Amino acid sequence: MVDISFKAIFGKLVKVAHFLVNKERIPAYLAVIAGMVAVRGLPPIHEEITMMVAFCILFLLLAQTSFRRGAWLGFLFGCGHFTLSFSWLITSIHTYGGFPLPVAILALLLFSMAMAIYPAIFGALLPRLAPRPEMVPIAAPALWVVTEWLRVHIFTGFAWNLTGYGWNTREAILQIADLGGIYILSWLMLFPAAVLSLLWVRRKKTKKVFIGLGMIAMVLGLSHLYGTIRIGNGNQETNNSTRWSAPLRVALVQGNVAQDQKWDPDFRGEGFFRYLDLSHSIAEPVDLVIWPETAVAFFLQASPRAMEQISKLSQHLGAPILTGAPMADKNEFGKWVFSNSAVILDEGKNFKRRYDKHHLVPFGEFIPFRDYIPENVSKLTAGTSDFTPGPSATPLPWNQGNIGLLICYEVIFPEEVRKLAKSGVRWLINITNDAWFGEAAKPQHLAMARVRAIENHLPMVRVANTGISAAFDQFGHELGRIPPNEMGVITVELPRAHSKSLFSKAGDVWIWFWLYLSVAALLPSIWRNIFKSKQQ
Q1: Is the peptide bond before 44 cis (omega within 30 degrees of 0)?
Q2: N or C: which end of the chain has fewer CB within 10 A?
Q3: CATH classification of 246-506 is 3.90.1720.10, yes or no?
Q4: Using one digit for the tens of pLDDT, what is the confidence trace for 386-401?
Q5: Of the candidates 407, 452, 427, 444, which has an alpha carbon nearest to the alpha carbon of residue 178?
Q6: Are 293 and 437 in contact, with CB atoms under 8 Å apart?
Q7: Model pTM?
Q8: Dihedrals φ, ψ of 286, to 5°?
Q9: What are the extents of the domains in the chain?
Q10: Cis amide bond preceding 229, omega within 30
């Protein structure tokens, strides 16, 4: 018989309290809290120092700990960090996916735990690679970058909110991304944190404290100096180039169609006409008009009337229309397949200039391992059938220069955008519908698109259904934006970029450099052991 007396309940509560306040569990609590606090360094808050302090705490917790305990502390740090960082997933799963709130919260927790495997790897390996505190500044930042690289690539990858995006408001420092991509920005965020952890351990040695602070100032100062010089030289290049080639004039159209109305059969026509009306308001000559992802929320191939209206609009503006739209095609077996696509349309009324999204969102646009999943389990986005991925990241041909087209979250993957840049595209265009992500994700997604422009020295135009729509030149300078949750049209002038960045040319080499730095801290210990064995 269960004892439900006051004394018994009070006794159980006391046991739970003793369990929770046990001193041995304090590091675990600190790891979770540090992970959550580190999110404040990311967009839209941008508290870089707060993020550095949070990582400093993690490094101190991992000092001289066991492999198993280090993995556990890293895992807890990741759980706290990713649960808060990816909290917008609740909007996608619950509000627009239709799942009950408890299910959405559980899905977020499970996904965060899966992503926390990478910090767990970091926590397990760091004490082995840096057995002494003075080795942490060498090993920790590089090892964290390696785990971020793994997160970007394994199981289709998820490159959202890498640590380096914390520098988003520091325009000069952002310029080093053209050397080593977002990964070098992540390294730069963690290097001061690693040095601070060493200074805390050696805090009684005043001389070493000053040396450590000087190292932080030097590294950040050199990064800022490089960026300042790069921007200055770039502005001069742009001014000289405009004498020979006029900038591209692009109109960004943001319809602000609510997600719960976008795919409603009774509203699809109204949403389409909203984009037509907004585009007709463009008064000045433009070279290209851009609508966002699935601005046309129906199959264009089955709507000759819609094609006729777009053709008339293009003729009226004297410019083609680039729009997102779902596409339906029959494969070689006569089966219908569906794509999340973008097309450039003009008075020609054909789909020759078309790009099919190839990096699809798991569960959002397709169900992984579909052959083993019941057919009644459908993706979160509209429609019962999965999208089929396009062949690869291929340039979209255009007479003004090939376009590097990126649909939705394809823009968050550095290597994929770099491949487009190496193929010779002249512009990067990201069309997206962030409405189903919620408000928190919008500035984060925008920051990632901006860094892609800097990494590859290519202008970036980003057009989103509910915002934030914006354009950047090859140095990340904002050329104009439409605020979130507003209808609007803006025209921007995109400079014609000429140079290629070191990252776009040699990005593959960097991962080997970070791997080398990760294990370089072991070399003194290895050398010392060899020297001792020879003496014996």
Answers
A1: yes
A2: N
A3: no
A4: 777 888 778 999 988 8
A5: 452
A6: no
A7: 0.89
A8: -135, 160
A9: 17-237, 246-506
A10: no
